[in-house]
Design brief:
The chain is of the alpha+beta class. It is 35% helix and 23% strand. Helix 3 runs antiparallel to helix 4 and helix 9 packs antiparallel against helix 10. The structure holds flavin-adenine dinucleotide.
Length: 265
């Protein structure tokens, strides 16, 4: 029997995980595991914890659902939100759950990497905030301790003026990404490119970012070199969804297209 407690505030949630309960937000990842026999002894439901749902300019509570983020989130995260699962999944699934699962294919994760977001974790001993690249440590592995609740994702105050997300999958709807990408561009030319599904964790491609400063318009021939550097900078695998070669090619094409969109905006 799986014990189920419902937390109504953060304090209750934190004491439940301190006692060994596994956090449950929308359940769209966790319940898939439960249905295939991976049953935690005890689960704490977080949906009634209001403080986890708060959204501000530079902070999104872990309990914010995709349905809300698609309207209220920063541009590229909102674009990512619109591609997550189906309306039912977006109505239940949360950013915190995406970050908690830490799938290499999590659609929310490239945005976090592209803007150097941090993950806020709260336990009975206090709150710590760690950068995305310290948090994601491997395939579905993170630096979160079992006694910690992900309370929020925190962004810098000055998000880039232009930001674009897109993903490639085997069809247009209800699809786990073969490649997902975010490109951001500031007015001073600073560019970031972050990808999911092409490495064990979300990644940035610094060589391409450096070079992108020299690309100035949507028809600049330098876009080809940018795409080539992105394709060279990813480390995909072949699995049931795609081959390594296709993912590498897709990463280059997607990144090039998104930079062109940023430059045309
Ligand atoms: C049909 C279907 C389609 C999907 N399509 C997509 C897709 O297109 N793109 C995509 O990225 N994902 C997709 N997913 C996966 C899933 O919907 C997302 O990862 C979603 O964001 C998970 O959020 P959740 O609130 O449901 O997480 P849950 O299932 O509740 O939790 C997921 C994990 O995170 C942990 N967790 C949750 N909240 C916290 C917290 N506050 N603190 C600490 N740990 C926490 C849980 O313990 C669990 O390990 C799909 C899933 C299904 C079933």
């Amino acid at each position: 029997m799986m014990e189920f407690v419902v937390a109504t505030n953060l304090e209750e949630a934190v004491s439940a995980v301190a006692a060994g309960a596994v956090p449950l937000a929308g359940g769209t990842d966790l319940m898939v595991g439960v249905n295939s026999g991976d049953r935690p002894e005890s689960v704490v439901g977080l949906r009634r914890v209001e403080e986890l749902r708060e959204i501000s300019r530079s902070r999104i509570g872990s309990g914010a659902r995709w349905r809300v983020i698609e309207k209220e989130g920063p541009r590229a995260l909102a674009q990512a939100a619109r591609t997550v699962g189906s309306p039912q999944i977006r109505n239940a699934g949360t950013l915190g759950g995406n970050v908690g699962t830490a799938s290499p294919a999590g659609d929310g994760l490239p945005f976090l990497a592209a803007v150097d977001a941090s993950i806020e974790l709260t336990s009975a001993s206090g709150t710590r905030t760690i950068r995305w690249d310290e948090y994601f440590t491997g395939v579905k592995e993170t630096a979160r301790r079992p006694d910690e609740i992900i309370t929020a994702v925190v962004f810098p105050d000055d998000l880039p003026e232009r930001q674009e997300f897109a993903k490639i999958g085997v069809r247009n709807a209800m699809v786990i990404a073969t490649v997902a990408c975010v490109v951001t561009r500031r007015d001073d030319g600073t560019t970031t490119v972050a990808l999911a599904s092409v490495a064990p964790t979300p990644i940035r491609v610094p060589e391409a970012e450096e070079m992108a400063g020299t690309v100035t318009g949507p028809n600049d021939p330098g876009l080809d070199e940018f795409g080539r550097l992105v394709a060279a900078g990813v480390s995909p695998i072949t699995d049931h969804r795609s081959t390594e070669e296709y993912r590498r090619h897709g990463a280059g094409v997607l990144a090039r297209r998104l930079l062109a969109r940023c430059l045309a905006a």
